[in-house]
């Protein structure tokens, strides 16, 4: 409630503090259910896919033929330390372009980029797990 004097000077009355309720536990429960590790990883995969698609659209054919893996490593850090596939534990031969983890030929899925943009004629090598499934979901959007 404001009271005004003749000089238009504002004077505030002090109100007593009301009842307070701590809502930290409620906030944390909602936050933890929404921000679990799986949803964060899905968002990371979609972001990396967008960046890779933009890279393929903006780079020239010559640049991609010479420096494709270099550009891909800038977007997705590759795990080159491991020598075995993350799914079947056999010798790796490929690296997933979205998560950077090593995979073998049997655990590889390949998605043509023509499905995202008709001008692109490349294909992405993906692992058969979350990266492949999330790319299919993203493709349908």
Can you offer a commentary on this structure?
The chain is of the alpha+beta class. The chain has a single domain (36-140), classed as 2-Layer Sandwich (Herpes Virus-1), CATH 3.30.40.10. The protein has helices at 24-34, 37-58, 61-75, 130-140, and strands at residues 2-4, 10-12, 94-95, 102-103, 108-112, 123-127. A two-stranded antiparallel ribbon has the order 1-2. It has a two-stranded antiparallel ribbon with strand order 3-4. A two-stranded antiparallel ribbon has the order 5-6. α2 (37-58) packs antiparallel against α3.
Secondary structure: elements and pairs:
Layout: E1 2-4, E2 10-12, H1 24-34, H2 37-58, H3 61-75, E3 94-95, E4 102-103, E5 108-112, E6 123-127, H4 130-140
Antiparallel strand pairs: 1-2, 3-4, 5-6
Strand content: 5-15%
Distance between the termini: 52 Å
Main sheet: which strands, in order across? 1-2
The coarse overall form would be: elongated
The total tally of domains equals 1
Strands, count: 6
Structural class: alpha+beta
> Would you give the CATH topology?
Herpes Virus-1
CATH superfamily: Zinc/RING finger domain, C3HC4 (zinc finger)
Would you identify the regions where 5 or more consecutive residues have pLDDT less than 50?
none
Helix content: 40-55%
Radius of gyration, CA atoms, in whole angstroms = 26 Å
Rounded mean pLDDT is: 81
In CATH, the architecture is 2-Layer Sandwich
Short description:
This protein has helices spanning 24-34, 37-58, 61-75, 130-140, and strands spanning 2-4, 10-12, 94-95, 102-103, 108-112, 123-127. It has one domain: Herpes Virus-1 (2-Layer Sandwich), CATH 3.30.40.10.
């Amino acid at each position: 409630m404001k009271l005004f004097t003749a000089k238009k000077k504002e004077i505030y009355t002090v109100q007593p503090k009301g009842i307070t309720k701590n809502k930290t536990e409620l906030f944390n429960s909602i936050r933890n259910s929404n921000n679990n590790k799986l949803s964060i990883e899905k968002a990371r995969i979609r972001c990396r896919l967008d960046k890779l698609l933009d890279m393929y659209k903006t780079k020239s054919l010559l640049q991609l033929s010479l420096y494709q893996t270099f550009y891909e490593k800038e977007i997705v850090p590759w795990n080159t330390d491991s020598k075995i596939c993350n799914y079947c534990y056999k010798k790796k031969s490929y690296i997933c372009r979205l998560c950077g983890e090593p995979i073998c030929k049997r655990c590889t899925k390949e998605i043509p980029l023509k499905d995202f943009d008709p001008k692109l004629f490349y294909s992405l090598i993906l692992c058969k797990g979350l990266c492949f499934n999330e790319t299919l979901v993203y493709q349908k959007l």
